[in-house]
Amino acid sequence: MELQTQQQVVLFMDPLDLWLQVLGVALLLIAYWVYRNFVKQPDAGINKAFAAGAIPLGVYILATGIWSTATWPLPGPYNILFSDSWPLLGVVLISLGLASWFSLLVRIVFYAYAGLSLPILVYGVAIAYYHLTQEPELAAAMFILIGLAGLISPALATKWGRPIAMAIIIMLAVAAVIAFFTGISASFAHIPRWAKWSPWYGKVVVG
User: What does the alpha-carbon distance between residue 69 and residue 88 come to, in Å, rounded to a whole number?
Assistant: First the structure.
């Protein structure tokens, strides 16, 4: 009697180091947008330049986020934390870019951002609660800061817009530093770890 075993094929990619560094760039870009529009006087030329960078970056993040949400390429619960939250940043960047290009700052947009930021805040609390990632304190702080910045964004359109803008800039800048530190550290850890890895379809034999 032949014993047959079923082998589960797991799709595993390792894009987090790149995504974290891209996240740092995106957060600094948004922080600069907040500074130019709510601390200083808005400038149409600068806003269009922002849009030219934010929209393609947002498209990349949204596309990879949708792919990641559909395929779940990461281990275990990290798909929930990273894959499911990643495309939300793409939506924010694209909408901010379009609003900047067409000189549209609609208050309702900030309420939408606040809604999108709520799950990010929840994920940050979950990271701390379940001690996920190798640096749960840093990861939780990054998620929580990003979530809080989005949650208070509707106040940008009020008379307290300037101090709220400064608070958002600080939170996004700190979160960006954490993202860069984590992403760069992950790059130097992942590259040697995957040095001998080959995809499921095998190695290319030369000679």
Answer: 11
Report the 10 Å Cβ neighbour count for 194: 10
Residue for token pair 């393609």: 56
> Can you give the three-state secondary structure of the chain, one letter per residue?
CCCCCCCCCCCCCCCHHHHHHHHHHHHHHHHHHHHHHHHCCCCHHHHHHHHHHHHHHHHHHHHHHHHHHHHCCCCCCHHHHHHCCHHHHHHHHHHHHHHHHCCCCCHHHHHHHHHHHHHHHHHHHHHHHHCCCCCHHHHHHHHHHHHHHHHCHHHHHCCCHHHHHHHHHHHHHHHHHHHHHHHHHHHHHHHHHCCCCCCCCCCCCCC
pLDDT digits (tens, 9 = 90+) for 91-140: 999 999 998 998 876 677 888 899 999 999 999 999 999 999 989 999 99
Place of tokens 């130019």: 36
Rounded to two decimals, the pTM is 0.88
The whole-angstrom separation of Cα 117 and Cα 194 is 33
For 149, the token pair is 């910045």
